[in-house]
Amino acid sequence: MSDAKIEISGLRKSFGELEVLSGVDQRVEAGEVVCVIGPSGSGKSTFLRCVNLLEQPTSGRIVVDGVELTDPDADIDAARTRIGMVFQQFNLFSHLSVLRNLTVAQRKVLGRDKRRAEETARENLRRVGLADKENATPAQLSGGQQQRVGIARSLSMDPDVMLFDEPTSALDPELVGDVLDVMRGLADEGMTMLVVTHEMQFAREVADRVLFMDGGDIVEQGSPAEVIGDPQRERTRNFLARVL
Ligand code: ADP
Ligand code: MG
């Protein structure tokens, strides 16, 4: 077997009567960047949330870095620390400094001592271009800076995989570019990334593969040039005509 970082097979998720994911199969290789596009309500967030078991799949198998998360005996908490997740909302602790925001989980969840946690935090603040903001509180930062702090916080847990759910959707347009640049940098460093995004230009430039989701299925997938540049399915074409 090759070095798949994420293996998803037969993933189904229903909320009551509503089937939101109707049997998704995917392999994401180490270092691969996969962008997920599709209309609102198509199941993109649910798909991402199932990958780290924030949502319990109705059925199917999720394996991340060789650990089957859907195994009832799996240590989900341990496995989940290896999966970074960045949401549209930054969810920072507003009363804590940027540095403290980055050290809390390292100390609580990974048991790192203060010095080690702060070293790692500073290294990741440099990585997102915010080395000079460690003493600021979130309210003193722009939305784009807050999202970069959110990314640095995830990176401080040394994840194997990063999941992004519309990380720039809540930002003013002029702040989107800095966040995308940080994500581009991570992709260049070889991070394995699954990214739900409406930023088609980013998907075109950075994704190795694009998945188009509609109605709980992956309707079309391939390189950005294929899916965004030359879509074969009518549903994909209709969606792109609305967003491009
Ligand atoms: P997307 O991210 O593509 O907009 P979502 O995964 O958020 O789509 O939602 C897909 C469908 O699942 C929507 O119809 C949504 O209303 C429904 N849904 C999502 N989460 C829940 C939930 N916790 N309970 C019930 N329905 C949900
Ligand atoms: Mg969503």
Discrete helix count = 9
Question: What is the percent of helical residues?
Answer: 25-40%
Strand percent estimate: 25-35%
Largest sheet: 6 strands, mixed
Query: Which structural category do the helix and sheet elements fall into?
Result: alpha/beta
Q: What would the principal axes of the Cα set say about the shape?
A: globular
- Tell me how many strands there are: 10
Q: Could you give the order of the helices and strands? A: EEEHEEHEHHHEHEHEEHH
Membrane topology: Peripheral membrane protein
Biased composition (Polar residues): 137-148
Region (Disordered): 121-148
Family: Belongs to the ABC transporter superfamily.
In words, what does this structure look like?
Belongs to the ABC transporter superfamily. Residues 121-135 have a biased composition (Basic and acidic residues). The chain has 244 residues and is of the alpha/beta class. The protein contains nine helices and ten strands. The strands form two sheets. It has a six-stranded mixed beta sheet with strand order 6-7-8-3-9-10, with helices on both faces. The protein has a four-stranded antiparallel beta sheet with strand order 2-1-4-5, covered by helices on one side. α3 (98-108) crosses α4, α3 (98-108) runs parallel beside α5 (143-155) and α4 packs across α5 (143-155). The protein is globular, with a radius of gyration of 18 Å. Adenosine-5'-diphosphate binds at residues 15, 18, 20, 38, 40-46.
